[in-house]
Amino acid sequence: MENVTPSGRFGRETIWVLAMTLLGSGLRLKGLGTLGLDHFDEGIYAQAATWIFAEGGLLAIDLGLVPYAPPGYPVLVGLAYAAIGVSGTAAILVSILAGVLTIPALAWMSRHAFGPGAGAATAALAAMAGPHVVFSRTGLTDATFLLSWSLGMIAGARFLERPGARRAAWFGLLVGLAQLVKYNGWMVGAIVATAVGVGAIRPGSGRTSAPRALGYGLLSATVAALVYAPWFLFVERTTGYAGLLAHHRSYVDGIPGWWPNWQQHMAQAQSLGGRLRGVVSWLSLSIGLAWVGSAIGQGGSTRSWGRFRRPGPVVALALAAASIAAAPANLTWWAALAWSPVLLADRRPSARLAGTWFLAMAASTPLYHPYARLWLPTLAASWVVSGGLIASILRQLHGDAEGLDVAREVSRRPAPLAVAAVASVIMAFIGPWLLPDRVRWFPDPLARSDGIRTLSERLRLTAPPGGPKVSRFHLYARPPLRFYLLQSGMPVSTHVDLESLRSTPAGVTEFAVIDSGMGVERSGALREGSSWGLAQPEAEYPASIAALLDARPEQVYDASMPHLGRADSGLAQRAPPGSGLAGTGMFWLFEAR
Questions:
Q1: Per residue, what are the HEC states of 317-358?
Q2: Average model confidence (pLDDT) for the chain?
Q3: Would you say residue 304 has pLDDT above 90?
Q4: What is the pTM of this model?
Q5: Residue 485: pLDDT above 90?
Q6: Residue whose C-alpha is closest to residue 94's, from 159, 142, 60, 155
Q7: Phi/psi of residue 71, each to 5°?
């Protein structure tokens, strides 16, 4: 297949990408000591990761993991346990490392697809992406999954450019690994296959290479299936794979749920945008840095950018300043929506893949329950495509065609670029009007999440000095509390519902803990009719953004109050701005009457 990827020096762009990677690592590592496991699923993964110390190894992995995720992430966390000890921090560090590595991975994909300057722009967008920063600072699968997804897309792009046995096998391996991190990893292969079909529609190398790509694609599918087969067989033998599929189908909302789910995704992405002051946000700063980085990445020499015969450098700085001062929320998403349809007609396989990636995920993700973290692959595609759009605009301003026949590339012609740029800005300003209510920003994407860890430390001190030790904690709480108590050597019993706990006789040295994050209201937690009595007044602890968005996704809308959520029950955002908290959750401690 003809290689139409622009050539160019990678030195300056590499330095910029490394700088953005360092910036992104600083954001993700900031306040590491204030992070802890708080989301329901985090406790599941953290406990499953103790397979590393089980007698049967991976065969003894906690079956409670099966409905939530394949073993990829817990395997990595287990290795982290072996290296630095069992802790919530070890699990979070795996996510942070994966999140940091995703920045250069996406930058490579963008530069490979769109040429010099695109990688620098995408690196800036990914480094300061609020949603990605938030979920990179958790013990969830999503940061690791996005890295495996990005590597799969890179392998897919290389496969499309030159289909062959080696590249097909490598691509299949990465698709299988993505499937082992999250159950929708197969979509990487589906998107690449769709890109093959898109390329076959119009005359050119994409059509002539389609049969070869489809043929070797069967090899990719076989390799991916072989990689995933051990987990499939394990689930089939233990809990049954049909039950797993039925469980996940229950979260599919289908066509009727598409529009409200899309609204929720867009609102959640906006709420995590990291507003700083006025209209300035992490997003607007990242777009400004993207313009500057792309200009640096395209600077062939000091002479070419040092002279003002062309408007490139001046306009790049002006666009950067305008972006920082006035970029609307979700601008990169709208930019990708405006430009991706144009990319489908591009001769470059990697550019077609980037456009297909975004459009496929933007259309399919809202069919599923709108968990905020599921929007990350769509957002990542928008960073790749937007980085390419920025680089292409600057290339036009710079007058640098990179030796290509620009007239044959519709995506590089001035008119489509101008239309995509203008349309993206217009749609981004209209976007908030498509949402059902005004969106409230989380005051700090770097908010602490150590509430449950702090609670577990205090529970260890529950027994009075000199008195009998606590014989057991009965929990109706999110799994991270069980994980922390077990790791501290405390005996624990978990109850699947509140009635089970209420009907359990209270022992003299036993305590019960009820977590508002399980959907319990004050009236329910304090209801009479059991052998448990309130031991201490209700206590509030910091709640993570990830837990808040899952427990009360409607919190992103609030037309009358300055903060997110409700104060009467559950997890609520009641912390004042500047407190370093995203919100709070309540816990009740009970003892024998």
A1: HHHHHHHHHHCCCCHHHHHHHHHHHHHCCCCCHHHHHHHHHH
A2: 87
A3: no
A4: 0.92
A5: yes
A6: 142
A7: -85, 0
Nearest to 438 by CA among 548, 576, 562, 334: 562
With CA atoms as reference, report the closest residue to 398 among 323, 301, 331, 326.
301
CB count, 10 Å around CB of 498? Answer: 17
Angstrom CA distances, 107 to 154, 166, 187, stand at: 10, 24, 21
Per-residue pLDDT of 188-236, as tens digits, reads 999 999 999 998 887 666 677 788 889 999 999 999 999 999 999 999 9
pLDDT tens track for 340-398: 999 998 889 999 999 999 999 999 999 999 999 999 999 999 999 999 999 999 888 77
Judge contact between 298 and 9, C-beta under 8 A.
Answer: no
**End-to-end Cα, the chain, rounded Å:** 77
Q: Has residue 401 got a pLDDT over 60?
A: no
Task: Decide if 162 contacts 142 (C-beta within 8 A).
Answer: no
- pLDDT tens profile 534-589: 777 778 888 899 998 888 787 788 644 333 334 444 565 555 555 557 777 888 88
Measured from the Cβ of residue 94, the count of other Cβ atoms closer than 10 Å reads 24
Distance CA 319, CA 360 (A): 30
Please give the structure tokens belonging to residue 297.
């990445």
Kindly tell me if the per-residue pLDDT of 518 is higher than 50: yes
Locus of tokens 């702090």? 454
CB 17 within 8 A of CB 107: yes
Kindly list the distances between the CA atom of residue 241 and the CA atoms of 15, 48, 246, 254, 524, in Å, as whole numbers in the listed order: 47, 19, 9, 22, 36
Position of tokens 């999954």?
145
Tell me how far the alpha carbon of residue 492 is from its chain's centroid.
Answer: 32
CA distance 484 to 490: 9
Q: Which residue has the tokens 């189908």?
A: 249
Q: Would you say 12 and 296 are in contact if contact means Cβ atoms under 8 Å apart?
A: yes
Contact predicate 126/58, CB 8 Å: no
Report the distance separating Cα 319 and Cα 395, nearest Å: 14
Distance CA 366, CA 430 (A): 20
Cβ atoms < 10 Å from Cβ of 559: 8
Distance CA 17, CA 373 (A): 24
Fill in the amino acid letter for 522.
Answer: R
Identify the residue whose tokens are 């329901």: 40
Greater model confidence, 488 or 582 = 488
- Report the C-alpha gap between 44 and 69 in whole angstroms: 10
Beta bridge partners of 275: 281
Q: Is 278 exposed, middle or buried (0-12, 13-18, 19+ CB in 10 A)?
A: exposed
Residue type, 160: L
CA separation for the pair 229, 334 (Å, rounded): 38
Q: Between residues 88 and 440, which one has the greater pLDDT?
A: 88
pLDDT at 406: 44
Structure tokens at 566: 């409700």
Sign of CA dihedral 161, 164, 166, 172: positive
Helix (H) or strand (E) holding 514: strand 510-515
